[in-house]
What does this fold into?
Amino acid sequence: MARRRVRKKSFRLAMRMKKKLFIVFFIAIGLLVFLLARIIFIQISSGDRYEKIVLDQQEYASTIIPFRRGDIVDRKGTVLATSTDVYNVILDASQVSSKEAYLEPTVDALVSCFGVNKAEVENYISEHSDSQYYVLEKKIPSDQVEKFEALREKENSNIYGVWFEKEYIRKYPYNNMASNLLGFTTSGNVGIGGIEDYYNSTLNGTDGRAYGYMNSDMSYEDTLKEAVDGCTVVSTIDANIQSIVEEKIQDWVDEYTNTDSDDLSGAAKHIGVILMDPNNGEVLAMAQYPNYDPNNAWTLEGYYKKEEIDAMTEEERLDALNGVWQNFCISDTYEPGSTTKPFTVASGIDSGKLTGDETYVCGGGLQVTDRYIHCDNRSGHGEETVETALRDSCNVALMQMGFTIGPETFRKYQQIFNFGLRTNIDLPGEARTDSLLFSVEDLENMKTNLATNAFGQNFNVTMIQVISAYSSLVNGGSYYQPHVVKAIQDDDGNIIKTIQPTLLRRTVSESTSDLLTDYLQSVVTQQGTGRYAKVEGYTMCGKTGTAEKLPRGNGKYLVSFEGSIPAKDPQLVIYCVVDEPNTGDQAHSSYAQSIVQPILTEVLPYLNIAKDEDVDSDEDEDIFANISTGDDDESSDDGDSGDDYSGDEDNSDEDNSDEDNGEGGE
It folds into this structure.
């Protein structure tokens, strides 16, 4: 009886267990069905999104493909700056050491092609047998790489575990030529100075990439995104003209450099020369002394003595380098001297304040309020017309013209000629000079300010301001924005952008321009101060300048010449500045003229500018007899206000320029 009860109880227990198992089973089946349905739903609705997430978590094998920075070429296609491909030699030690037969042939090939140290390479492979990436050599030229590849391609060469990363280095085929105009690049394809800087984004391209990953099928997939190379910048510069200009500057430097001294100051503190097409603002050449080699831009050797370099702090060294890299033609300001006298005359003629028929009497100086201001000829020029005042560079006549023009009109035309304003040339670092000019109130309240401004003293300019303004004065009155780039090409050589000439304003009327060119022709005659710049067989306009620098009386001068050829319908303008020529008597513009004349003698035939003047050989011989000596029959004072007039030194901005000059008004 008892046994039956036990069996019955066991049966009931078994039935309850079965029911529970069935319930658990069906719940599990239900959950599985639900999960399966959910997975199907996710796959259909969000599969792509989750697949991307998974793929993003995979390990990628990625290699950057560098872009090639675009070239800078001259107006005829001559390459001035280019990018040359070089290679980094990468050693995969794990592959080289995977077979004993690979080691010796691979190392021998590396030694033969790249000159590496055999023992060092073998030691590295032995000690880092798991390494897959080691930069063995950097910036190897392509011909050495080709030599290595030729060895590897030989049958049974057993050369393994070496590959190459391509990159580019910047090269300047003509070394120092146009260096301050071109600039250079530093790491990361960043332009420093010049066209390299201003057009940096145009010259740069976009890196490509080769990469691989495990796809959703767990197979390895390669993807290649090609690099986009930078564009080529076509400059307005003519390499032949640039070369001529720099050669003639160097000839002058060689003549005036003291080779018997270890002084590195050279033939002058600065020399700048700009040649421009006055009819569209294109700069044909822009050169300076001293310059530098952009292939080796970070050296100060040749500019400073070794002990001076060694004593420099890092900040001092960088300041010194910036001084070497700086473009004198656009970044330095100075008092221009008598090269601005034509603008004073033009202001008077164009405004109607002068007729051109006025006469003045020069007795060697003029009393202005409590100051006596000298002329360049302290004995006096006697009676001067407007034309002869420019020819003789008479300060007294120009001061009287300034008083007739008046402060308001004088200041108005300074702005019209763009003095005090940037030209916005397409180069970095153009100096501002607005703070270096007097206001109308300053000119009204102090009469000496207007007097000295009339002959180019006590206000500052840049070279690019002067030549741009002068171009408008002789071309009929059209002021074009100066520029150094004329087109942009893609990496296939197709022109994608053309820089058209930009006419900014009219400065003077055509009649005023015609009258001024008549006046300025007399400057380069045998009687004029610009006679040493005259080129045989060509009509020519010009104006000289001899500015005494601050502090007055220290014997430091900045001399200059601006000119245009032919006199009527000019095709070329030139401006040359020599800052502190290395001579005992600096106050002679003939130093600048002796650079200009040989430049024009070669450049004019090259440009096919025809001669338009009969030549008097006897007169020509007289004119050029003394050009190399600087004997220009001018007073060494050349308008120096000297002890009698100190000028307003507070009107100079030392942050913009270290040339707080005085005026020698030639």
Observations:
- The first strand starts at residue 61 and ends at 65.
